[in-house]
Amino acid sequence: MNARLATISILETFEKSGSQLKIIRDQFFHRKKMSNLDRQRTTVLTNEIVRWLPVIDSIYAPYLQYPLRRLDSKVKAVLRLGVYESVMDSEIPDYAAIHSAVETTKSIKKKKASGLVNAVLRKVIQKNAEKPYQEMEHLKEAFPHWLSQKWIKQFGREKTRSLMTTFMKPRPIFIRIDSHLGDVIDDLHSREVKLKILPENEKIHQIEKGASALVKSPSFEKGYFSIQDPGSAAIVTLLDPKEDETILDVCAAPGTKSYAIAKAMNGKGNLFLSDSDQKRIEMAKKGGGRFSFNHISWEQKDATRDTYPMADKILIDAPCSGTGLIGRKPDLKWRRIKEDIHEMQKIQKSILKHMSQFLKPGGVMIYATCSIEPEENWEVVEDFLKLNDGFEIESAEQWIPSRWLDDNHCLFTWPSQENTDGLFGARLKKI
C-alpha cells in the first residue's frame, strides 16, 4: 500500500475514533505491508495534517456547497491530504497534488466525488496563487482556543507565540546510549545514521539523519541504547538511582524511564515497577525484552490506594495533560479539554499524598510530569508541602544544568528554549 492511501485510512480512523494517532498508525502498519519509505512518508503526512487540522479545513471548506460535517469521511481525508500537499508542502507540484488526489478518490471507490475533489483543489490552488499561504498567520488557529488563551494569560503573548511556533515543527529525535558506546556509534554509522552529542549529558545524542534505522539496528535490539528525550532522561538523573537501593516507579509504563533506572542500578537492588493499566504494562514488558534485568518486577497497582514496599526512592511520573509533548504528539491538543487539567490535578495530589507513606526517612521522592501547566506542577508540590511538614524541596541544581532550574529549584524544561519536550520534576526529601 502506498503512503497516500495509508494516510487517508489513518486520518479517517483518527476522525471517527478519537484515539491516539500513533496507536492508530502503529496498528495500521502492523496490518499492512509497506516499504520503509512509504511508512516514513505516511508518518510525516499524518503528523503534519493532524498538526494543522483546523487550518487545513478552513482552506478548502469555503468551496464546499454544504457544511463540512456532511462531507464523507474518506473524501474529507483526501481533501485534507490534497490541501496539505498543494499548499503546505513545497516539494509537491500543484498538478501532481490534484492528479493524485483525484486518482486516490477513484481508487477508494468514491468515483462520484472525484469531480468535487478536483474542483475544490483547483479553487484552493487558485486562491493560494493570489494570496500565498503564510504559516505564521494561522498559528493561533492550529491550537484549541481555550489552550492558547490559557497560555497567553500564564506566559504572555511573546512566549506563547514562541512556544506554539516550536510545537508546530517536527521535534528532534534523541537516543540515550547506556553501554558499548563505540559499538553503538559504529553500528549506527554503518547504517548512515548521523549523531550529535549533547553537552548537557554525554549519554544523550541527537539524531540528525537516519532515524528510521534506529530500532532495526543490532545495538538497539541488544539494549545498548534507547530512544529518549533529554528532558525525560533528566528526570532519571534527578532521581539519582544507586546500586543496592529499593526504588519504586509507580506510574511506570511505557517503561522508558524505568529501564534507564534499572541500567543505573547495575543489576543490584530492587526496582518495583507498577502501573494501573495492564495493557500498558504488557507493552512496557515487551519493550523491555531487549534487556536482561533480574532485579526488577512489574505489577498492576493503583498509586492512589494500593500498598507498596518501603523504598529509598520513589519516582512518580504522574499522569498529566501532556502539554509539554504537543510538539511530539500533534493530536494531543485536539484530545484535551480545559477540564482535563483540573481533573489530572486531583489525581496527581492523591498519588503524591498516598505514595509519600512508603518512603523511608531520608529518602527521596521525585514528582514529575510532561506538562507545562502550573496547576499540574508546582501547585501540586506546593499543596503537598503545606500539608506535609516532614518533607522539603531539595534543589535540583546538583543534577541538572542550571538553566533547567525554575524559581523553586525544580527541573523545568521549556521547549522553545531548550529543544526538548516540556518536563517538570521536583525532588522531595523526607526529613
Describe this protein's structure.
With 431 residues, the protein is α/β, with parallel strands linked by helices. The chain has four domains: 3-138, Orthogonal Bundle (N-utilizing Substance Protein B Homolog, Chain A), CATH 1.10.940.10; 142-169; 173-227, Alpha-Beta Plaits; 230-430, Rossmann fold, CATH 3.40.50. 46% of the residues lie in helices and 16% in strands. The protein has helices at 3-17, 21-31, 36-51, 53-60, 73-88, 94-107, 114-130, 145-155, 157-167, 181-190, 218-221, 230-239, 256-264, 278-287, 332-335, 338-355, 378-387, 415-418; strands at 173-177, 194-198, 201-209, 225-227, 245-249, 269-275, 296-300, 311-317, 359-369, 391-393, 411-413, 423-430. The strands form two sheets. Strands 5, 6, 7, 8, 9, 10, 11 and 12 form an eight-stranded mixed β-sheet that branches. It has a four-stranded antiparallel β-sheet with strand order 2-3-1-4, covered by helices on one side. The protein starts with a helix and ends with a strand. 41% of the residues are buried.
